[in-house]
Design brief:
It comes from marine metagenome. This protein is α/β, with parallel strands linked by helices. 44% of the residues lie in helices and 14% in strands. It has two domains: 95 residues, Malic enzyme, N-terminal domain (Rossmann fold, 3-Layer(aba) Sandwich); 135 residues, NAD(P)-binding Rossmann-like Domain (Rossmann fold, 3-Layer(aba) Sandwich).
Length: 269
């Protein structure tokens, strides 16, 4: 009974009042400091698309397992039944006192950018959009290692990014910051370039900072002679002929999920 009275009432009141007097102590006196919310609306799940919050749960549970296994962090899926960026923002702000960090997952662009920015401004805990920044970091790391292995300079590199959603946009930004010489993005319509006329605000930024020669056409057209392909788009997009059309010893990162733009055995064909 003594243990129960310490864990709950009346003993817990002392902890409550300590946090009331200094809310920062919640990080030390509760589970908050090691608890992350994995937030999704299920609108852009892996390669499955808009499958809704219930169907997105297994992915969020899998991500929670990775948090625990590799970082010892207790993560919990929070799948929200709305397609409104404003409602996602409001919901997360109201839930935030429970968590030490927010991991945004599988929210479609451009709404994902709005959600992330608003939450970063509103909250005093870390907010991380995994589809953007996680993908961008590992892509740059892989590219750096490829350049070391092949003896190339990043400033001389030409890259085509297939898919200019949340992940493609973030990869483009980090490659620009890293000093990649030339970047061309391709979406479902074709090459992204300034003045295309159908671009949202995010893609307008991308167009203004990439593709200086205003290359047009499909991904197959803009691949001619380039050094690297980064795929964040759709399965079975490329053929071996497309790779032969690239520059010598091309670097190919086929990362469409769950099935890549081209399989290794097809690339060798």
């Amino acid at each position: 009974m003594h243990d129960l009275s310490m864990a709950y009432t009346p003993g817990v009141a002392r902890i409550c009042m300590a946090i009331h007097d200094d809310p920062r102590r919640a990080h030390d006196l509760t589970i908050k400091k090691n608890t992350v919310a994995i937030v999704s609306d299920g609108s852009a799940v892996l390669g499955l698309g808009d499958i809704g919050p219930e169907a997105a749960m297994p992915v969020m549970e899998g991500k929670a397992l990775l948090f625990k296994e590799f970082a010892g962090v207790d993560a919990f899926p929070v799948c929200i039944n709305t397609s409104s960026s404003e409602e996602i923002i409001e919901t997360v702000i109201r839930l935030a006192p429970t968590f030490g960090g927010i991991n945004l997952e599988d929210i479609k662009a451009p709404g994902a950018f709005e959600v992330e920015q608003a939450l970063k401004e509103a909250l005093d805990i870390p907010v991380f959009h995994d589809d953007q920044h996680g993908t961008a970091v590992v892509t740059l790391a892989a590219l750096w290692n490829s350049l070391k292995l092949t003896g190339r300079d990043i400033a001389d590199l030409s890259v085509v990014i297939s898919g200019v959603g949340a992940a493609g946009m973030a990869v483009g930004r980090i490659l620009i910051d890293a000093g990649v010489g030339e970047i061309v993005g391709v979406d479902s319509v074709g090459a992204v370039y300034g003045g295309r006329g159908d671009l949202n605000e995010s893609k307008e930024w991308f167009a203004a900072n990439t593709n200086p020669d205003r290359k047009m056409g499909t991904v197959h057209d803009v691949l001619h002679g380039v050094d690297a392909f980064i795929g964040l788009s759709a399965p079975d997009l490329l053929t071996a002929a497309d790779l032969r059309n690239m520059g010598p010893e091309p670097l190919v990162f086929a990362m469409a999920n769950p099935n890549p733009e081209i399989r290794p055995e097809e690339a060798d064909g």
